[in-house]
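Notes to self after the Tuesday call (sharing in case useful).
The group wants a holo model before anyone commits to mutagenesis around the pocket. I volunteered. Ligand is heme C. Logging inputs and output together so the record is complete.
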Amino acid sequence: MKFLIKTTSAFILLATIGCSSPKKEQPIKKITSNNSEALSRGFILLENNCFSCHSPNPKAENKIAPSMKNVKESYLKNHESLEEFTRNLTNHVQNPSEKNSKMPEAIQQFGLMPKMSFTDMQLKNIAVYLFETDIEAVDWYKNQYQKEQKQHLAKANKNESPLEKGLEYALKTKSILGKNLLGAIKEKGTAGALLFCNENAFHLTDTVASQIDGVEVKRVSDRYRNLKNIANVNELSYIEKTKTQLMYAKKITPQIQEIEGKIVGYYPIMTNKMCMQCHGNPSTEIEKNTLLKIKELYPDDLAVGYSTDELRGIWVVTMPKEYKK
Ligand code: HEC
Ligand code: HEC
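Result:
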């Protein structure tokens, strides 16, 4: 933290003498938190889960979603305290809807953001990073962060359970899949995007896993579309349990198991409105040409007829046993 504070005062100094020469490395503007762990966790989460769609750079081409700077500014417009900022951000990310939106024009332009199931704590860390740092200085933070990364990670990981670690892998994969799916729908329409999923879903889930030694991430379902995604016995029993919890309006929770010397995490995948164009009611929600393509590509498809807020499937994250520590 010492370094950040020093840099902050250096920045204030520069600002007061009116230094306007373009600086390459932009320092973080204000740090009111003394919680470096929240900042670094928030940064990792943003980098892994949000920047794929929301570029931190407002000048970059933002085809899929508004830039993160834009989001931050809209959220700060009427909400000056960190608490309020966090509450509003959490509301929209946990349940994206017109009702919770502070940027209705973004919904018009890009379509609603897909729902992501982060914990309150994770969203709080994201909010702390967004609120307290200059979002455009993300490269600066990254360099700084990388220097301190070992230390931060060691500290952060000590407090993180395998369940949370697995969730981070699942959400990271989801963010990459989500970005590509939204991009493909926008570019090629629903039927075109279908072909894209058919060719790329596997490859995309692999990319995340292959970056980390010994970690595997996959999506499976009891009502599968692709035969390769059929849930096995253990996965099915988690799916059944979760469906029962949903039926009784109970809170659904991820689960961790040790199987054959590995740690396996299960995380629910819920449907929202966006999914209905490919997984909804075949006669009212799925367009005819999309339905034809589904039948052609997946003759054994069971993954239609869903409504919103149903369990569509689960993420399965397999991790080496060391993660238990
Ligand atoms: C798959 C792409 C995608 C990912 C990944 C994504 N978003 Fe979004 N997000 C969008 C789109 C599209 C919008 C604009 C439509 C809307 O407001 O829902 C949006 C809007 C938002 C808004 C403004 C919502 C409003 O209308 O008030 C916030 C806040 C937000 N995102 C936060 C996040 C955070 C935090 C993350 C990472 C945890 C994230 N997003 C990841 C696509 C994404
Ligand atoms: C553009 C059409 C399209 C949209 C929109 C779509 N999906 Fe899919 N989904 C597919 C296709 C195609 C597959 C099969 C991918 C493959 O071959 O691996 C699939 C597979 C899946 C799987 C893997 C299990 C299985 O059945 O094979 C899950 C889980 C899933 N989708 C969830 C969702 C959720 C949740 C949403 C909304 C957030 C969504 N999908 C939106 C087309 C779509």
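Two things stood out.
The two ends are 27 Å apart (CA to CA).
The longest strand covers residues 262-270.
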